[in-house]
Amino acid sequence: MRRIVVVNSITLDGVMQAPGRPDEDTRGGFTRGGWAVPYQDEVMGRVMGERMTGEGRLLLGRRTYDDLHGYWPSQPADNPIVGVLNNSTKYVVSRSGPLPWQNSVLIPENVPEAVAKLKTGPGGDIAVLGSGELVATLMRHDLVDEYLLSIYPLILGTGRRLFPDGAPVADLDLVDSVTTTTGVVLATYRVRGGTGR
């Protein structure tokens, strides 16, 4: 059975909003976008590259899909992330199309049921990148099996959080961790009782 693996960058206070660019996500007047960039290093690139290769299947909210599509396809083809993203099957939760990126599949309604069905299909795990609202839905329906979190040594004090007040309770086991040269902890947590156990 496939597992749903949430892959996200968060600050110590749990903020996941706009790690890559100042204009990535300014909802709520958020002005601190791009906070993850100064912490990138070779260790992070290697570890995340290893985790993102193989049978690529992504589950994305529409905002994340559009943001990724607006950037990655135009990057140099020798960047390994470009190939992974272009060739991955991208399941996109959205009320409407079109989905212009190759290998994209629309999930227009009944997300919990559709994701539960995806989990029973053949093949490898399905990674959820960003997509905070989608992740919240998956957590509420006990559909997340693992979290791969890049935890940054930074407190922003504001912004959309991965685990906001009222998030469902979950018991997690730490199954792997690597610390980068810039102090980012790449931690893999498995949900107790999840598919991967």
**What characteristic shape results from the CA principal axes?**
globular
The N- and C-terminal alpha carbons lie at a distance of 11 Å
- Top-tier CATH class: Alpha Beta
Task: Briefly note the CATH topology name.
Answer: Dihydrofolate Reductase, subunit A
Compute the average pLDDT. Answer: 92
Structure explained in plain terms:
- There is one protein chain.
- The protein has 197 residues and is an alpha/beta fold.
- The chain has a single domain (4-191), classed as Dihydrofolate Reductase, subunit A.
- It is built from 5 helices and 8 strands.
- The protein has helices spanning 42-52, 62-71, 80-87, 111-119, 132-140; strands spanning 4-11, 57-61, 89-93, 104-107, 126-129, 146-152, 172-179, 185-191.
- A hairpin with a 5-residue loop joins strand 7 and strand 8.
- It is globular.
- The mean pLDDT is 92.
List the helices and strands and how they pair.
Blueprint: E1 4-11, H1 42-52, E2 57-61, H2 62-71, H3 80-87, E3 89-93, E4 104-107, H4 111-119, E5 126-129, H5 132-140, E6 146-152, E7 172-179, E8 185-191
Summarize the structure.
The protein has five helices and eight strands. The longest helix is centred in the first third of the chain and has 11 residues. The chain has 197 residues and is α/β, with parallel strands linked by helices.
